[in-house]
Amino acid sequence: MAEWEIIWQQRDIFISGFGNTFVLFFAASIASLALGITLLYVLENGAKGLKGGVVLSINMMRTLPFLILAYLLYYGLPQVGIRMDAFTAGLISLSLYHGTYFCEIFRGIRKGLDSGLTEAAQACGFSKFKTFSRIVMPNVLFKSVPLIANQLIICLKDTAFLCIITVGEITAAANSIQSTYFIPLNAFIVAIALYWVISIAIEQVSKITLNKVQERGLSHA
């Protein structure tokens, strides 16, 4: 019981870590989704050279371990005069890394869409941007809800790596308490529970969204 009393006494550290993790995850989720959509648009409508650059960037990012990317941004860039705080480096690394994976998810779904959708839009005089924003992307998003939720959970788990670059998130909070009071089991049980809270919230939101999509028949559009 004494060990759990220590955890309770140090709850502010966990609350701060949970808040940092949630803000970091939420911001990175929005940024990476936006990046994934932007990259898909370039692959759909960009110039040939630009498309090639995007494909090369995606392939490079997919073969790069996330932790190395975070190291490069936080510890590597200062050597060329670019400095940022740990939180910013963590946010950018999460956004870049998962943005490429979202693009791959969207690209796979895009290939399975009926070509008649875009042909009908073009016949109605829609521009490339209008076709993409009103026809292609809504259908891609509707069909990829479960995959998006899965990728978001992976993004959440990747926030734990950021304790290595001194971001004060959940894992860093647990590590701080266990190294001070030598109670690793209790500290990391609490950390796991906090990650579960966010993960369950993601799953519930995705289920509600998927149910709404299916009720409206949008997943078969």
Can you tell me about this structure?
By secondary structure, this protein is mainly α. The protein has one domain: MetI-like (MetI-like fold, Orthogonal Bundle), CATH 1.10.3720. Helix 5 crosses helix 7 and helix 6 packs antiparallel against helix 7. The longest helix is centred in the first third of the chain and has 35 residues. It is flat, with a radius of gyration of 21 Å. The relative contact order is 0.15.
Tags for this model:
10 helices, 221 residues, MetI-like fold, mainly alpha
CATH architecture: Orthogonal Bundle
Counted up, domains total 1
N-C termini distance: 56 Å
Strand content: under 5%
Q: For the residues shown, what is the average pLDDT?
A: 92
* Total helical segments: 10
| Series of H and E elements | HHHHHHHHHH
CATH overall fold name: MetI-like fold
Given helix and strand content, the structural type is mainly alpha
Q: Over all CA atoms, what is the radius of gyration?
A: 21 Å
Q: Main sheet? A: none
Shape: flat
CATH class value: Mainly Alpha
CATH superfamily: MetI-like
Which percent bin holds the helix content?
over 70%
**Spans where pLDDT lies below 50 across 5 or more residues:** none
Total number of strands? 0
